[in-house]
Prior knowledge:
The chain has 1176 residues and is of the alpha+beta class. It has 38 helices and 42 strands. It has nine domains: 2-76 and 181-258, Alpha-Beta Plaits (2-Layer Sandwich); 91-176, Alpha-Beta Plaits (2-Layer Sandwich), CATH 3.30.70; 266-341, Alpha-Beta Plaits, CATH 3.30.70.100; 350-491; 503-608, Calcium-transporting ATPase, cytoplasmic transduction domain A (Distorted Sandwich), CATH 2.70.150; 639-714 and 1034-1092; 727-754 and 911-1029, HAD superfamily/HAD-like (Rossmann fold), CATH 3.40.50; 759-908, Calcium-transporting ATPase, cytoplasmic domain N (3-Layer(aba) Sandwich), CATH 3.40.1110.10; and more. α21 packs antiparallel against α33, α23 (733-739) crosses α33 and α33 runs antiparallel to α35. The two termini are 47 Å apart.
Amino acid sequence: MATTTIKVDGMTCGACTSAVEGAFKGVDGVGEVAVSLIMGRAVVQHDPSILAPAKVAELIEDCGFDAEVLSTEEPQRPMRPSSLESPGPRLTTTTLAVEGMTCGACTSAVESGLQDAPGVVSVSVSLLSERAVVEHDEGIINPEQIAELIEDRGFGARVVETKSVPATSQTSTEQASPAGDSPGHLVTTIAIGGMTCGACTSSVQNAVANADGVIQFNISLLAERAVIVHDLSKVSAHALTTMVEDAGFDASVVSSEVQEPLSKKKQQLNLSIYGLRDAASAAALEETLLGRPGVQSASVKLATSRLQISFDTSVIGIRSVFEIIESAGYNALISDTDDKNAQLESLSKTKEIQEWRRAFLTSVSFAVPVFLLNMIFPMYLRAIDFGKFQVIQGLYLGDLICLGLTIPVQFGIGRRFYVTSYKSLRHKSPTMDVLVMLGTSAAFFYSCFTMLMAFLSEPHNRPSTVFDTSTMLITFITLGRWLENRAKGQTSAALSRLMSLAPSMTTIYEDPIAAEKLADEWNSAESPMQPESKLADDAAAVNQKIIPTELIQVGDIVILRPGDKVPADGVVIRGESYVDESMITGEALPIHKKKRSHIVAGTVNGTGAIDFKVIRAGKDTQLSQIVKLVQDAQTSRAPIQRMADLVAGYFVPAIIALGLTTFFGWMFLSHVLSNPPKIFQMEGSGGRVMVCLKLCISVVVFACPCALGLSTPTAVMVGTGVGAEHGILVKGGAVLEAATKVNHVVFDKTGTLTTGRMSVAQVKMEPHWTANDWRRRLWWLVVGLAEMGSEHPIGRAILAEAHSEVGQPGQDGLPGSVGDFDTCVGQGISAVVEPASSVERVRYHVLLGNATFLRSRDVSVPAAADPDSVDAGVESAASTSKPTAEPSGITHIHVAIDNRYAGRISLRDSVKDSSVAAIAALHRMGIATSMVTGDTLSTALSIAAAVGIPSSAVHASASPSDKRSIISTLQLNGDRVAMVGDGINDSPALATASVGIALASGTDVAMEAADIVLMRPDDLLSVPASLSLSRTVFNRIKLNLIWACLYNVIGLPFAMGLFLPFTGFMLPPMAAGAAMAMSSVSVVVSSLLLKLWRRPSWMQVERLEKEVASGAIPANGVSRKTGWWTPATILSDHPQSLRRRIQGGLASLWSIVSGRQTTIREDDGYVPLQTVEPPV
């Protein structure tokens, strides 16, 4: 499957993105499609053998949008047969679509139903994509039987794909499992132009989402993009764009790429090549590149002068690729840079703002004279009304001038409305442009008809034309679109700033080895905060060069001067400085950086000069991951948005029907009623037909689905941007909605509530290891060697202590070798070690872990050596025989050497400064808290008591599967659970929880499994802050939707003339057009008010700690009574209680309108939450 990225111009709202999505419906070879309204991009996965990228763009253009193919990443194919492949048993991988999963408990049910089945090797279930991938032996169990097992669990199941995989593909040798053996799933992003509201997104979705081969579909109105996961063998990227274009929108493929496993060190680039002459030179360049080690594939397209190359970054760097191309006589530029610039322009709506501004100014220059001739002069300035002169009998000068001035507006500026309306109607997915086209056309052609009748029939009186209605409507609509796009550009300001953080150029040393040698000789303790000149003098022997940031590769030594932006992630090797990280983490104060400090791309260096070694570059940097996460958040629609888009899809036909009903209804009533409203009898009204027509036009142009469609995506865009500025990364609108319902937060202990920086507090060796100093050092050497392969904080602390004990502090390794290293996550490790200090070669089998782990390996742990008198498994503090917690929170690690108990290492961890305040803030918000940990019960109880978590909510000695079970149990009890963690052992629980919250200091696996990522891991108040932000954003979404609905519900009766019999007032079409334009602007401005969000003033460490100390916030979970009330509660309430309920209701209303959280004191309605019993 290929992944094609297309730039789409012309999309304005959700209806446009829906139309683009709809264009891909039913097109063969197309997999997933994703459309981003804000970015103006579409990403489409497709089969290039069925649908070419150019055809993908044509599909979007057929929808009425401009589309341009930016890049196409084709699936990798092996250049030659692998010599490593050998005959052997072949496994089968089956992908199934699973219907009916709603939460982590459902995925757990599917997994548990398959894991124990005979012949099943592995199971992976995704809730979001609604897919289950099962690796199995088809000779034992076939795909149909797997589907039956899932159906037996109560879910719908359908086999999507089955393919055989060589057994050798399970190894890490890439040649044994070459990519591209068979078509797979592609992620294609398509930029869609022309979407204006939810009806447009619904149109695109209807056209694409149900197409054969489309696996997952997401569309964003604001980002102007659709992201589609699709099966290339069934539907191609080109077919997807054709579907979008057929729906009436412009579409272009932004990118189309195969999702690679995270473990592969592969980089894929799209380069623009300059100097290619013919097909022979292109083939020669391909041959040259493929002959170099590390280059996996290379494809040159002569027509576009584009090179797509994939290479192993551990073998060859990006600069080496450029050197190969330049040595062949060509020049190259990274195409992704052009795409980034285009995205920035799309985010800021520069092009759209200029287009609509130009259209408005042109339109108003024609509309004002028409308005004067048609309205002002005949009614108020009759003395200078030269339009009343007849040119010929029945044709008046004023009418002819108005006709001439209206035609350029109606068919010049209004041409885009006709084009998009035709395409949307052709695919039965009408958008707001249809309403504009109908309203203006009715006014224009009716005016032309009245002029013709005045010319042909007696007595040739001056006709009642409404050319001013047509021109003024288009003028107001273009004004509204101009203001709307200006406001939209502000909604993505945070993302634009993130994308602009990286510098364009950077300075590196030509010889990184020599530069690193100089850095090793530099001692920060002797000469802290060295000035730039000193560093430059010391490094004079090493040449420097300035390169584009895109060409930085891992291992480079980068020079940072005062005020420079950091171009990549790395580790400081020389110099000291203060670095401003506020744009990444939200931390206001500069952070001191010295040797061995980590530094991230996009931050700004202070007054010092430093050198750092690059450890992550390009798309792997933390900044790039943040940008990617925020971009992806825009294509993830909240359930409430899907409902709004569904309503918007039916909105246009309903309004057309309502307009026709208004016209014929008033025509009938004006003839039947003996005393119709006065406006039907007034001389200047133009007669009954004219009044009815104006009422009909007012109805058609007043109703606007754009406001409904923009309510959710604009709030999500601003909310996710504001969150990113505060160090809170939210993965989409669905997460925001889920976070508002959270009523229980479960914390991991190590590295989450605690610092994770363990230190050895006590060591107790068995007597036979303390006989002499040599055996004591050997004990530490054996233990240290065993922990060399561990990344756990406990393992690193033990290794550091081992270095110190054996007399090698600060060294990278210990003398000896390690083999057969194995980790039992959450329990312990085992390894076979051979110390180099032994006189003879002696190997030791070492076990380190908790007592349960050692006992499971048949090691007898003395009762006196185990302070935690609990059985193996998950233990709860609610146990009747719970031990006394150690006040210091000691963690015990037991050691066994050659299956004999050898001693115990006790480690201490410290609680984070913000942990107590974070727990108190959650309790104040009415959210219960729990803690799960793989540590012992005594340690868990100690930490829980220190931070304020109830002892009844502590779960100790929990393995990763136990943590997931605990989360599932809480969910089955009715709780909406958020899990906060940072390690690999937390990832199953993070994926199972209603909302997974990961700390950025943790592992990539945990961050991948989480829904919210916190960039300031030491500030746990970010957890309640993220929930507060989610509530604020979702309240804003509800306010926007209520406003959009009320706008139409209240305004439409006026437009229909329902109050004519009582007031004699009717809404003129021009006023209706202005109101329609302002409805979208008002919703976007409402969302922009979210930029004012700040953490609640009470959410401060010092203030919350004081409230805890005074007892204002109980340690057990508390809940706030709702501020809304019913008549029954009002009648039954005590006057003081009634006052509190009214105050609570007004506070809740104010929090929705203002976007700021309000709080109620404990005596104003806090009640204890019912505690949840821990699972057995």
